[in-house]
Structure formats: C-alpha cells, structure tokens
Design a protein that fits this description.
single chain; 455 residues; alpha/beta; nine-stranded antiparallel β-sheet; five-stranded parallel β-sheet; 14 strands; disordered N terminus
Length: 455
C-alpha cells in the first residue's frame, strides 16, 4: 500500500492543525466533523476529534437549564479545566505522530464565555490563571463558526439528533450569536451561514479548512461542485499504480428505519488494522435538497446498531482507493466478495467538479480505462446495488430517488427493468459507450461499431 503524500506549503514538513468547530445548535458541526475526518484520512492524515466537553458532562445528569447562578459559574470553571485537559491529551498524542495531524475540537475554550457575563468570565480566568489570548489565539490555528439552522434554515431546525439539545428557535439564535461574539478576536475565524443547501455548507467547511492549511484539491469543494461517477474496466497491479494512494477496507450495512423515506446505514472503515465507525441518516428531499447527517460512533455503538441491520440488503464490502491527480481528488470504489452477482468485478471512479461533462472526461486520469459515465444513474447507487433479491422481484425496494413516492407500481417495474439492462450492458466486454454522455433515463447502449469517444 502506498500512502498519499500531501505537499506542505510551509515548514515544518509535519503539520499539526488545531481546528475548532463552533456555532449555535443544529449547525452541522457533527456531520462536518465526520466529513472532515473522512477527507483528511483519505489524504493520509491522522485525525483526532475532541468530544464536546459540555455534552460529556451533561450526559451524567447535569441540566444546564436547572442551574442557579452560582452553579453555572462553577460548572463553566470546571468545563474550561476539563476541556483543556481533554484537548491537551490530543495535542500531546499529535506531537508524537509521524503523520500530519488534524485535531477537530467540538467547541473550544472561548465558547464557555458565551454563556456567562464578562465579569464572571474574568473571575474564571483569574481563578485558573489564564488569559484570553493564551486560550484563544495561541491555542488554536483556525475557528469555523457553523451557523445554526435557526437562522435562515428554520425548516431544518430540529432538536431530535442531539441528546443534550433542548433550545427553541429563539434561544438557538441567541446562542449562535453569543458563540460568534466569543471568538471575534481570534485572527482566523470563518463563518459559514445558511445561504446554500446543507451539502454545500459542508463542502464550504472542508474547502475553508484545506485552503487554510494550504492543500490544493482543485474545485472539489466549490459551491457549485457536483459528483460525477464512471465505470472503470481493468485495474493495473498496485505496484504499477502511477500515483500515490491510500487504500481503506470499507463495509456498509443498511439498517431498518422507523421513518418512511429515510435511509440509515453504518460504515466501518479500516486502515492498517485500525477502524473508524460512522452512522449516517439520509433524509427525504425537502425544499429541493436531501440532507445526510453523519455521526462518528464507537465500536460498541456500531456493534449494537448492527442488530438493526436490514436483511433485505446485503452488506457492501469494498476497497476505497483515494488519490490525487492534477490537483483533483478521486476515489475508486472496488467492490469485493462476498457480494451480489451484480457487483462482481464492479469498479467505480468518483470525483467532485464544477466542469462540464466534456471537460471532466478530458481531465480524467489517463491510466484508468473509463467505460461509461453513470452519474445520476440509480442502477449504480450503493443502496440499490446492495438489495438482496433481484431488482424485478423487489421493485418496491428500488430507490430512484428519496422522494419517488409518486410513481406507480407499473412505472417502478419498468424503470427497474431498464436499470437492470443498463447494469448488464456495462458489464459486457464488447459494449462501448460514449463516456462524455451522462445518464439519460431513455438511453440505449451504443454498438461497438458506432463512433464513440473512449479513454
């Protein structure tokens, strides 16, 4: 296995980047952490995630809303001391790592000042022998404020996804503004508001962090970036792969969902024998956007949630290969046994880009044999590929899109049959496709003798 080398813009060659994610409730901090970790791990970085100290303390029975003034002051004092002790543990571990390290803190020391008066905060600093500049500017490299959905995205505001969240919309707005004020003096603060959809918000977060560190990943996280997907035929041996890469062994399990239209899944991601676990909820389309909420979980939680796996779906085993080519990040999903026969030998290339189809094809890595552009084709979605039974026998399970409740049963069967045909055609050795053409619901395979452009 070869690990991707990230060229650092400034010395030292080993980087430790200390990032704070702050903001009001329901701003996307948890999902943002998961996406940041996945991305930076794919670059070969080590990622440490410091848990939100307030949540850890309140999970033991403390209810902030029930505390009197004296208790609040006492709680905030111990909160700061505990937070710094937790962070110092991760900072120390980072110093001993050979890799570049990203440390993501779910809120930082200055967030504690947002809940009390300036006078009370000064008392805490004096008691702990601390100064603002020492626990702000000199402690963290970068602050990103994720604006609460209570400001500008009210329809998406919820307290359901967080055990310690109780704030109504007005209180959430107040907490958001207070958190923003707490960090106003830090030299490197970025604010991500809700002017775009949720996916774009998460992309803006990653884009800000990679730019602050100085990593060039092209237009991967631009606001109008879209995911493109291609079928790859034939892979060279790992020893001949011409660019540096990182391989992860990944397994996905789909779970039963109590809510109609929701998709829930678990992911186990292993590198060098070390595993990370993620729980994802994909919600139905609302106001033209589909929201995916990702949450890092423990091995114990992962094992417990596996008891709720949906046996209508097979587990998905694949090797995910991440690499950079011409400042563009790519991922190869190499499906592995055991799997449904429809997935045998399947290799998919994915990237995010703002370019049109012709420009994308022209810039694809020339060392990969690209057979077909399957962007947007439900026949190549992991959810549908994992369905245990034949698609025609389970047309009601096949997902054309998360909001596809309007189609009749006959339409579903017809579309599933077409999807099956597309999957079969792409696996046929002599079938050639125009790779500049993305998925078209009414497409038909192009004959081998036709004039096509292929890589």
């Amino acid at each position: 296995m070869k690990d991707l080398e990230v060229k650092d813009p400034i010395p030292p060659t080993k980087r430790i980047h200390k990032l704070v994610l702050t903001g009001g409730p329901c701003g996307g901090k948890t999902t943002g952490q998961a996406h940041l970790a996945t991305f930076f791990e794919s670059l070969g970085w080590k990622v440490f995630r410091v848990p939100e100290t307030a949540t850890v303390l309140m999970s033991g029975g403390i209810s902030f809303g029930e505390l009197n003034e004296e208790q609040i002051l006492d709680f905030q004092e111990h909160l700061v001391a505990t937070m710094m002790a937790l962070e110092d543990t991760y900072f120390s571990m980072a110093e001993k790592c050979a890799q570049n390290v990203l440390i993501i803190a779910d809120r930082g020391t200055m967030d504690a000042s947002a809940f009390i008066s300036r006078e009370a905060w000064e008392k805490i600093l004096t008691k702990l022998s601390l100064e603002d500049i020492e626990i702000s500017d000199n402690r963290y490299n970068h602050i990103v404020h994720m604006q609460s959905a209570a400001i500008g995205a009210e329809k998406f505001y919820t307290t359901e996804d967080h055990a310690a969240r109780f704030e109504g919309i007005e209180l959430a707005r107040e907490r958001d503004n207070s958190a923003m004020e707490a960090w106003r003096d830090h030299p490197y603060v970025d604010i991500i508001d809700n002017r775009s959809d949720f996916d774009s918000k998460i992309n803006r977060l990653i884009d800000l962090v990679v730019k602050r560190i100085g990593i060039n990943v092209g237009d991967r996280f631009s606001a109008n970036s879209r995911k493109v997907k291609f079928v790859i035929t034939g892979m060279c041996p790992d020893s001949d792969f011409p660019v540096k890469f990182t391989d992860f062994q990944v397994v996905h399990h789909y779970l039963h969902s109590a809510q109609k239209g929701f998709q829930t899944r678990l992911r186990k991601r292993v590198k060098n024998g070390r595993a990370t676990y993620t729980f994802t909820v994909r919600k139905p389309e609302l106001q033209g956007q589909t929201v995916e909420v990702k949450q890092p979980i423990s091995q114990r939680d992962y094992s417990n949630l596996l008891a709720h796996r949906d046996d209508n779906h097979l587990p998905v085993f694949k090797t995910r290969r991440s690499f950079l080519y011409e400042n563009q990040q790519y991922q190869l999903d190499i499906y592995r046994a055991p799997c449904h026969s429809r997935c045998q030998g399947l290799v998919l290339l994915e990237t995010f880009t703002t370019s049109n189809d012709d420009e994308v094809v022209d810039s694809l890595p020339p060392f990969l044999k690209v057979k077909k552009n399957v962007t947007g084709d439900p026949a190549f979605s992991m959810y549908n590929l994992s369905i245990r039974s034949d698609w025609e026998d389970s047309a009601e399970q096949f997902c054309h899109k998360l909001s596809s409740d309007d189609e009749s049963e006959d339409e579903n069967v017809s579309e599933v049959r077409k999807a099956q045909e597309r999957l079969v055609h792409v696996s046929e050795e002599n079938t050639v496709f125009d790779v500049r053409k993305a998925y078209d619901r009414n497409e038909r395979p192009v004959s081998e003798s036709s004039s096509v452009c292929s890589l």
